[in-house]
Design goal:
With 271 residues, this protein is of the alpha/beta class. The chain contains 7 helices and 11 strands. The protein is 46% helix and 24% strand. Strands 1-2-4-3 form a 4-stranded mixed beta sheet. The protein has a 4-stranded mixed beta sheet with strand order 5-6-8-7. The chain starts with a helix and ends in a 6-residue tail after the last helix.
């Protein structure tokens, strides 16, 4: 049997061991906490090709590997907590060409993104390049329009590409939709043109010619459908009346109760 003195000694030793374990656990926990929360963020810069300055943010964490990401054009360096600034700088220097190419890619994509209107709704327009022969157009459900252009078009300036692409897109949509609108107005007014064409107009969205033909600008597709119908009806009426006489206005008011709203919306446009 263990005597009382021996038991007390064992108890004392156990308390000492337990205290040491608790201290070690506390130190380890503190280190772990510090490492996991040690996300240092600081800005550093290096010079790339053509004196491009790369500014990047460093996040320090417990991960063992260092990796670089480009988020919305910003360079993020994720490094282990024990990496020195010199070591991080050396890795970024080594990867600077890749970083610059990714930044340029992001900037090009951003410059090729703008908003366009179709039937009064705003769509994000994105121009991308691919190894294709002819341009392609995709209208997504999330109100994004993607125009895919052949790589050979890269030589043309961005503004020219966008203008050409937007005009082509408007023309395609007008060709698809205009027949139904023209037929609706014909049945509404009992008037019909000899013919109609879709062409680019100088400062006009539609016009009636002396040959009783109607020319429609592709840009008309930016307006709401009801506004487009109003413009087309306006040109149909000019087939019968050359001026905005009382008879002309009576027809428009009879068929479009909110004609004043349409006139205000179209203020500044020639038709």
């Amino acid at each position: 049997m263990i005597n009382l003195v021996t038991a007390k000694k064992c108890s004392k030793i156990f308390e000492i061991v337990l205290t040491i374990c608790q201290i070690r656990y506390k130190i380890a926990s503190t280190r772990k906490t510090n490492r996991s929360s040690n996300k240092e963020e600081f800005k550093m810069s290096i010079f790339g090709k053509r004196n491009n300055v790369i500014t990047y943010t460093v996040n320090k964490a417990t991960k063992r590997d260092m990796y670089i990401t480009i988020q919305n054009g910003e360079v993020i360096v994720n490094a282990p907590w024990y990496f020195t600034q010199n070591k991080i700088q050396a890795v970024v220097e080594e990867k600077k060409n890749w970083i610059l190419s990714k930044i340029n890619e992001y900037q090009q994509q951003s410059s090729n993104m703008q908003s366009v209107k179709i039937f009064g709704k705003n769509y994000d327009l994105k121009v991308v390049y691919s190894n294709i022969d002819t341009p392609e157009l995709n209208i997504e459900e999330n109100y994004e329009i993607k125009i895919i252009l052949p790589n050979k078009y890269r030589k043309i300036g961005n503004k020219q590409i966008l203008k050409m692409s937007i005009n082509k897109m408007y023309e395609q949509i007008v060709k698809k939709e205009i027949d139904n609108i023209m037929e609706k107005i014909r049945l509404m007014l009992g008037i019909a043109p000899e013919d109609y064409f879709i062409e680019q107009l100088d400062g006009e969205i539609a016009k009636c010619t002396s040959k009783k033909e109607i020319i429609i600008s592709p840009e008309i597709i930016q307006f709401k459908r009801e506004t487009i119908e109003y413009v087309i009806a306006h040109e149909f009426c000019h087939l019968k009346y050359k001026t905005h006489c009382k008879s002309f206005n009576d027809i428009m008011e009879e068929n479009f109760e909110n004609y004043i709203k349409f006139e205000n919306e179209l203020s500044g446009y020639k038709f």
